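Researcher: Next entry in the queue.
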Amino acid sequence: MSQVPNPANRVAAECLAGRFRILNRVITGIYDDAFRPHGVRISQMNVMVVIADQGPVRAADVCRVLQLDKSTLSRDLDRLLDRGWVRSTPAEGRAQDLEVTPAGRALIEKLMPAWEEAQKRVHELIGPELAQGLFAAVGKIRQANSGSAASE
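Model: Structure for this entry, 152 residues:
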């Protein structure tokens, strides 16, 4: 009589989502630890960097670039607005344009040494092959999503 494999054992052994969530928590912790003395988290830094890079930009565009839902962006954006690192100005209709303030740009500059140290630690932890693989995977995802975004 053959034994039916335990589904929980299979998921525990093979689930990519579980592995990525562990990787995400560990890597996020490295960056958050580096940024903690400055009162910012990596999720907030990522939002600020997208806005600085592409701004003025609408919240929907930030969500698209970072693959976030609006409620997740809202939590980080509220803190950035409250701290005066980002400002929101009326745009067409009900939309708001987001841009990084001079104080936000100064914070990004101030965070660079901490970011570089966190970046170095993560590269040492995961190695160059995984780092390159992650960039390639995100590139594929963005390419696949750019086709669907055009039809929305």
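Model: The radius of gyration is 19 Å.
Researcher: Noted, moving on.
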